[in-house]
Amino acid sequence: MISLQSLSLKICAFLIFTSIYSQKKPNLIIVHTDEHSFRTLSCYQKLLLEDQAFVWGKGNNVDTPNIDRIANEGAICTSYYASSPVCTPSRASVVTGLYPQATGAPKNGLHLKEGVPTFASILEKEGYATAYVGKWHLAGNGQQYTFGVEYKAGFKDNRYMMRGGHAPYFHIKNGNYKGINEKVAAKFPKDEVVHLTDFFTEKTLEILERDKNKPFAIMLSIPDPHTPDYARPPYHKMYEHMDVQKPLTMDPKYTAIKPKWARATKGNFNNEATGNKAFNKKALQQYFGMVKHIDDSVGKILNFLDAHKLTENTIIVFTADHGDMFFEHNRVNKGVPYEASSRIPFVIRYPKKIKAGKIIHTAYTNVDFTPTILSLMDVKTNAKFHGLDTSNDFMNDELEINNEDRITYFAKSGGWWVAAVTNRYKLILDKVEEPYLFDLKEDPDELINFYNDKKYRNVAKKLQKELFLMMNTYKEPGLLKMKNRPYITE
Question: Which of 49, 134, 155, 177 could be joined to 221 by an S-S link, Cβ 3.0–4.6 Å?
């Protein structure tokens, strides 16, 4: 007969073993921003030509040491794209590993389809404490600045999963939250007002404190640096000294010849802003301030990991849903296939498996994120993805990878245009415009169409063929009307 003391010792031993075993599972933190130009991260500026790093004038940009730390101690991807450069479809792809047309949310204002596996639902089944904090944008438009999203998509703790919203502040009183601008915020007592970046960062830290002794996966979705381009004090004055300049591509001689898909439109299709905006120095200075605020918030999370000895066993990712044109090609915001709109930052650190200082020049889209992150975490699943498991690129011993052969694609949600990309070339097929082929090495400003240049014929044919194959495979909505257009066939 087993004594009570012996039983207690066995139970203690089991609990200790279980705790040790569970801590072998890597943790995951994703910091996800909104409408974020990759050019504003200094880890990207260091890899760009000077005129590309400082499109708003020499020296006019942000220093982001905390986000840089993730890149320096891990990997940075130089050709990472949004599946569709608009909030909802891009976010749907990040969490599911599917192209937007398969998620139920190919356009803004739609809901993520219930039952579609997400990385969170898969990790929850693996025993992870899953949480989501911040802007969701996958539960319809609905009432602004509200929590209590019913469908959790695998994020067990979704108390702070927020519908809508880009007002910079919350007014919090009696448990009610109201989004307000800076002028209204000044009218309330300071203890009733909090900036959204601060609020969501603090809630993330609270959840990390609660879950630090078990495997956790948390996604922090910061609504900035999206419009209305306001940085809270003291960030609002940090860049006032910068004499920011118009980008080269705002020159009328370039804007007069740009393709139809890049021109101003009468409507506001898919809730993105359109072109022909007057250059606004103050807005750009405020944008820089928002980015600096975000970087400081990332620093708080990194400090927490260091303080609690979680750095080695935690994967941390910094990325965004899409970019921001910020007057390049005389446009603002997103929704076009130009680099500033469609290319997104992606840096990742995982000391156990990713060598520090790795640079990856391979074309990815955020459709690749879920299968890749699950593989990095050694999580097996029967879920089917459109994206590829690219984890070997991150885990191998090469410090610099330059894969010119990988072709992937992204599209305008709704099927207006599609773009095939490598780490050098970009082919854009549109329903009303002639095909465009950009050579990002020879023409990083994306001003010259090489599609009909004989020297680029083989490149155009290769991208075109692969693009049609991918559109067929993934049932891209723009396929039918494009197949009947005249393209290079010889």
Answer: 134
